[in-house]
Write a structure and sequence with these properties.
It contains 14 helices and 20 strands. It is an alpha/beta fold. The protein is globular and about 70 Å long.
């Protein structure tokens, strides 16, 4: 059976005859590219996910428990300093790296281009999101007399733009040989009617498949092997849009090492039971994050004997991994979550269609779905006003306005402490 015959057989088996018809309108070169794509895509998985759309997270069949966290405010001074010293030694020895997840566009902010190229006006000047991260890295390098490797996970959609932007700004002074970009994975979009779409490039339309693809993408791009070769032991992973993100924290590192865990995260206390945020918990005895849409109201409002929310530790996308964990997780297949999106496409006559309503399902995996492969993880509960100022919405909560306010308050507070010779 030829490649073309095999591709056609796959498409017809899963009732995608419109793609077969589309093939006949392509040049030989275009057809060859489409055939290769079909043979490399896991179409069966996509169709199975579509056929099981009605299957939702069944909370009643799972044991949901509170997960323990270390509150930064409740650490004794000597314990705090011991944890910090352990982490600092690892960083000083060049065994620490940082990954920034930056595959998204700034569309929701009204910004054209990768989200990391969005600029905010702060009390200490106008800065791009990427620039803020570089400044944090540079401060850590100076403090620990090292140069921390910086990896940036982009997407096919924004990789070239990101590279061009960083080169234009000379990587904001960061050593270029210590910066490496790699693309996250992709998955086909499927219409609400269950059909694969054709994109402007005349191929089956794909989209980034969520930050959970980071593990396989690291392996695919030989980054895990590169890290091991360079004696990297611990890797911090965070998002590009939290302008208070503490990407080099010896305390979190020291706690994780001391507790003998391979993974760790930071949390902040939920504003209230109604806050739309994923929270840490244990599901069937394994560390997990459960989305607010999946947590029953009575559980979201449950309080302990001190009046605190039982499920009150919010995920702020601030994670730490041992290199062994990244290696192990790169071999695992994470579940896909489904979201409705709006996407343009080519119809069977090659006309570009721009729908006015959501018309496709997008499949995404989440980085935290990998936590359940471990029995335990370390969680450090920090102060929201000091480490969590995300920019996700154009206005309202988690907008540039709210994030800038938190950032300015923190830097002004830090300047005052420094000025008065108080501990920072």
């Amino acid at each position: 059976m030829s490649k073309e015959e095999k591709a056609i057989e796959i498409l017809k088996r899963f009732k995608q005859d419109h793609v077969v018809n589309w093939m006949e309108k392509l040049t030989e070169d275009e057809k060859d590219k489409l055939i290769e794509q079909v043979l490399n895509l896991n179409i069966e998985q996509v169709i199975n996910l579509y056929n099981n759309l009605s299957k939702t997270f069944e909370i009643e069949n799972k044991k949901i428990e509170k997960i323990s966290a270390i509150d930064i405010d409740k650490l004794e001074k000597d314990v705090f300093l011991n944890y910090k010293n352990i982490g600092e030694n690892i960083i000083k020895n060049g065994q620490y790296a940082v990954i920034t997840m930056a595959g998204g566009q700034g569309t929701r902010l009204g910004h054209t281009g990768p989200k990391g190229t969005f600029k905010v006006k702060l009390d200490n000047g106008e800065k791009y999101l990427f620039q803020i991260i570089v400044e944090s890295l540079q401060k850590a390098n100076e403090k620990y007399n090292t140069v921390i490797p910086w990896y940036i996970m982009t997407s096919e959609e924004n990789n070239d733009q990101t590279l061009e932007f960083l080169e234009l700004h000379n990587y904001f002074g960061y050593p270029q040989d210590k910066v490496k970009l790699f693309e996250q994975g992709k998955a086909p979009l499927i219409s609400i009617a269950g059909k694969l779409l054709i994109g402007r490039n005349k191929l089956i339309k794909e989209a980034s498949d969520g930050n959970g693809s980071i593990y396989k993408s690291l392996a695919k791009n030989d980054i895990i092997e590169e890290m091991k070769k360079n004696n990297i032991k611990w890797i911090f992973v965070g998002g590009v849009d939290n302008i208070l993100l503490k990407i080099v924290d010896p305390l979190l590192l020291g706690i994780t090492v001391s507790e003998g865990n391979k993974i760790a995260s930071k949390s902040v206390i939920k504003r209230n039971a109604k806050e739309r945020a994923g929270v840490f918990c244990k599901i069937d005895g394994k560390p997990s994050i459960i989305e607010y849409t999946e947590l029953p109201e009575e559980m979201s409002e449950e309080v302990d004997s001190n009046g605190n929310l039982v499920f009150g530790d919010v995920n702020i996308l601030s994670h730490l991994f041992n290199i062994e964990a990244l290696q192990e997780l790169s071999t695992k297949t994470l579940p896909y979550h489904i979201a409705e999106k709006k996407s343009d496409y080519l119809d069977e006559n090659g006309n570009l269609i721009n729908p006015k309503e959501k018309n496709v399902y997008k499949y995404e995996s989440f980085i935290f779905d990998a936590f359940s492969y471990y029995n335990e993880m370390s969680i450090l509960r920090v102060k929201r006003e000091e480490e969590f100022a995300p920019i996700k919405n154009a206005e309202g909560n988690d907008s540039p306005e709210t994030a800038i306010k938190l950032y300015n308050e923190k830097i002004n507070k830090t300047d005052m402490k420094t000025f008065t010779n108080l501990p920072v």
